[in-house]
Design a protein that fits this description.
It contains 16 helices and 24 strands. It is of the alpha/beta class. The protein has an eight-stranded antiparallel sheet with strand order 3-2-4-1-10-9-11-14, with helices on one face. A six-stranded antiparallel sheet has the order 5-6-7-8-12-13. Helix 4 packs across helix 5 and helix 8 runs parallel beside helix 11. It is globular. The N and C termini lie close together (about 10 Å). The mean pLDDT is about 95. The structure holds 5-amino-5-deoxy-1-O-phosphono-D-mannitol.
Length: about 575
């Protein structure tokens, strides 16, 4: 996680760096900082909290300089505090560094550096890199030699950018696993974790290959391998999908993205025929299929597994990306790994994809953001095409992933499917005012439960995840049949339980489970096509074909989480402790 940006220019860079950070904030927002080379000195400002805090402090006393770096942090090592905010300086203040990733062997390096007299000012893993570079340059090494020495020392995954007092016209960037790219401008170059940071300046970018060192000037860029071999540079033109998102008249990106779903669902079908056919062919060819994903993408994959089973007659396994190692021994050339990730940057998914490739398996990724590290690691990619999702909570990407799985399982891309879904999604969004009122009641509860069976089980999990991350409330999604195997003991008078129960083949059994909750004093909220006397509240679902119910059901639950978060005054687009891309393990 963490967003990093560095720029060398003919013009003062301070304001630009702050603007860039705002666009990178989806990567973390615990603290932020900026360093600018001003009058032969590295000036640093760091603040706790989101980038707007840094912006306010910076406006009070801005730096003047044409070279600078900046960082927005998602804390890993070292608490959320000003001293742990990046950039970090070396002892003499000659080297400043920003970092995304984790340096695994930082403790031993720190000990060694301290034994050699280095004074540390933070608790982070990152700071070792500044001290190491100071030592390497102090011993007379060139920038490249010093960078190679550092790359040899550091274990873990990292994107590092160094600014140097004694080399005011150069920056060093080192990439291992964590994404890093360089925007190639007119007399200026910008290095960042994401092209969003520099798109308004240039759409020409060099994506640094894994294990690369870049020595970056204003007009020149040299890239090397970790053993010092010069790499050929390929600048590519970035596509329009990198355009900067706009909240329009909505209060938050999250609610905008919830409302976009009826419109964007058809975009999922805008696939190149070749990629769709290949996807289908690979599914039929593979002897084993593993679907690897995290969070909401994992929940969409559970639905995907059911669709593949029911409509394509294909068995697959769904694996949490962070647990992929438990099945990695089955990854071989008979195997297809479907990696599902909105961002395409989730570290665990990328690692699973790399392992699968090494073992000879075919990897197809389903992503939204593009280009991404995941798609570069895959044999083929299928894109959701639904535009940027800015809110940290996955909403439109979840429904799009589910629909894409459905289309693949059916083996065809039918426009009328998207039309049917669009109609139903539009209809269910009409309950918004009612759900906002319901959120007033739900947000007073200690615990909230979601129950679903069959295809609806994944939606119980997803509904609970939305409430946890947006409203910071304890919520659990359960398979309806599991209730009496333990969780029923948690039901007290007034405990809210969402019964996800359209009139499909699971209707009767699931209703019985709801009644069991009701009999024990629980408050029953039915999401169904059919009212019931047992429901304390009823959210009417539009009638659609059975396989589309889960996609439609997820929308009222997204709204519920959104309005509960609003009632509780939470930061809806940027929930605490989270980030949109989880680029560490
Ligand atoms: O970018 P990805 O789809 O790989 O992200 C996976 C999860 O981090 C993500 O779905 C997360 O759980 C969301 N915040 C859920 O709303």
């Amino acid at each position: 996680m963490c967003g990093i940006i560095g720029i060398l220019s003919d013009y003062p860079v301070g304001d630009y760096l702050i603007e860039g950070l705002k666009r990178l904030e989806y990567r973390g927002y615990d603290s932020a900082g900026i360093a600018v080379l001003q009058d032969h000195k590295i000036q640093v400002l760091r603040t706790v909290g989101a980038v707007n805090k840094l912006e306010q402090s910076y406006a009070a006393s801005p730096f003047v300089g044409n070279v600078g770096i900046a960082h927005t942090r998602w804390a890993t090592h070292g608490g959320v505090s000003e001293k742990n905010a990046h950039p970090h300086l070396s002892c003499k203040g000659d080297v400043a560094v920003i970092h995304n990733g984790i340096i695994q062997n930082y403790s031993e390096l720190r000990q060694r550096l301290q034994n050699n007299g280095h004074i540390f000012r933070s608790d982070t893993d990152t700071e070792v890199a500044a001290h190491l570079l100071e030592d390497e340059l102090g011993s007379g090494k060139s920038l490249l030699q010093a960078a190679i020495a550092i790359a040899k020392e550091l274990r873990g995954e990292y994107a590092l950018v160094f600014m140097l007092k004694d080399f005011p016209d150069k920056m060093i960037a080192i990439r291992k696993s964590s994404p890093l790219l360089i925007g190639v401008g007119q007399n200026e170059n910008i290095v960042s974790s994401d092209a969003l940071a520099f798109l308004d300046k240039t759409n020409r970018a060099i994506f640094l290959e894994d294990e690369s060192i870049a020595i970056i000037g204003k007009k020149d860029i040299e890239v090397y391998t970790f053993s010092g071999q010069r790499r050929k540079l390929h600048a590519i033109e970035l596509a329009a999908e990198f355009s900067l998102p706009d909240k329009e008249s909505y209060e938050h990106f999250t609610i905008k993205e919830i409302h976009e779903q009826p419109e964007v669902i058809a975009k999922v079908l805008e696939q190149e025929p070749g990629s769709f056919t290949l996807f289908r062919k690979e599914i039929e060819r593979a002897k084993r299929i593993f679907i690897v994903a995290a969070g909401s993408s994992f929940h969409a994959s559970l639905l995907g597994r059911s669709y593949l089973s029911e409509y394509a007659g294909i068995y697959s396994d769904v694996v949490l990306a962070s647990e992929y190692k438990s099945v990695a021994k089955w990854f071989d050339d008979d195997c297809l790994i479907l990696c599902v990730s909105q961002s395409g940057e989730t570290m665990d998914v990328i690692e699973a994809a790399k392992t699968a490739k090494q073992n000879g398996a075919t990897v197809i990724s389903i992503v939204n953001r593009s280009p991404s590290t995941l798609e570069k690691t895959s044999d083929a990619v299928v894109r959701l095409n639904i535009g940027a999702e800015v809110g940290v909570a996955a909403t439109k990407s979840f429904t799009a992933q589910a629909f894409l799985f459905y289309a693949v399982a059916k083996g065809n891309m039918q426009a009328h499917d998207a039309v049917e879904l669009k109609g139903a999604m539009t209809e269910v969004l009409r309950h918004e005012a009612m759900i906002a009122k319901l959120s007033d009641i739900i947000s007073r509860s200690k615990d909230v439960y979601y129950l679903g069976r069959g295809l609806n089980y994944a939606i119980a999990l997803e509904g609970a995840l939305k409430l946890k991350e947006l409203a910071y409330m304890h919520a659990e999604g359960l398979a309806a049949g599991e209730l009496k195997h333990g969780p029923l003991a948690l039901i007290e008078k007034g405990t809210p339980l969402f019964l996800i129960n359209p009139e499909d083949d699971t209707y009767e059994e699931t209703l019985s489970n709801g009644v069991e909750v009701k009999s024990r004093g629980g408050m029953l909220i039915g999401l169904s096509t059919k009212p019931s006397v047992h429901y304390d509240f009823f959210v009417r679902l539009p009638e659609v074909r059975r396989e589309f119910y889960p996609i439609v059901e997820s929308i009222p639950l997204q709204l519920l989480a959104y309005y509960s978060a609003k009632v509780l005054n939470k930061d809806v687009d940027r929930p605490r402790n989270l980030a949109k891309s989880v680029t560490v393990k």
